[in-house]
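## retry 2 of 3
previous attempt timed out at serialization; input unchanged, resubmitting
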Amino acid sequence: MPHPLEQALDYRFADAALLRAALTHRSHGSPHNERLEFLGDSILDAVIARQLYERFPRASEGSMTRLRANLVCQDSLRKLALTLSLGEHIQLGGGELKSDGCNRSSILADALEAVFGAVWLDGGFDGANRVIVRLYDDLLAGLVPEKPLKDAKSRLQEYLQGRRLPLPKYVLAGADGEAHTQWFTFVCKIGCLHIETEGQGVSRRAAEQAAAEKALEQLQANG
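## retry succeeded, writing output
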């Protein structure tokens, strides 16, 4: 019987061990998914670059670079991972389970890239290309190369300014790890709307952007 994730991906692994490794976080044991993540990151960049090149023949290099960065960023990967219910299948150690690691953006994004790497090893470029393009199809179809893609902090600022509301405050809530591998947590506070959202990232800027993105999602959900 196929794994539920194989059904979601519409891809059947010939080597099930590759899928198991892709879904194993280092906190759970070895073999884990970090090496597969390295491969998946590369194949994802290549597939998305080719799609942009073929779909937008008049787009400039700078425009395609900007679009690709937006498509392969951690937040985009997290959203795609959620559509696959990927967190339900990731094997985590006890500590990560207790801290809700299956919903952490970095773990979800890394695992999805690892799955791409596993498909590449299992089914070659054509297999990986098919899986990635199918998963990204809606995002690719909705792209407008000429339209500038502003970051989450800028979009949140414009949203609030347009309604004459005070700008958000970003507060450092934590920093873990060694100096060269730190993990930051920032809280985005919009006091007048009683909104506080938390974002994490490998840099202060990335954590602030993640918090801002969540604040925007909450504002949109609230209408």
